[in-house]
Design goal:
mainly alpha; about 90 residues
Length: about 90
């Protein structure tokens, strides 16, 4: 099995399983926030944010590959940190 075939196989696996994985992560986050004693509204919000975060990581992986996704996530983290440090967020 060459590198391109292995990559396609992995991307096919991700396409089949990522909606379930993202839903499980969102649901687990909801339960964790509820168990921490917060209200339903906050738990739903944080669970939805986790769901969106997992889906965005997957899409970055599909669009840019592994190294590109890591670079994009790191760059976005630094950019958001700089924006909040300067009072924009």
């Amino acid at each position: 099995m060459d590198e391109d075939e292995r990559e396609r196989t992995h991307l096919d696996w991700l396409a089949r399983n990522m909606p379930l994985i993202a839903s499980a992560m969102g649901g687990a986050t909801y339960v964790a926030i509820r168990l921490a004693g917060h209200g339903n509204g906050k738990a739903v919000l944080v669970g939805a944010i986790m769901f969106g975060f997992v889906i965005s990581i997957w899409k970055l992986r599909v669009w840019f590959g592994v190294r590109g996704a890591i670079t994009a996530m790191g760059s976005l983290a630094v950019l958001l940190w700089a924006l909040q440090k300067n009072g924009w967020l």
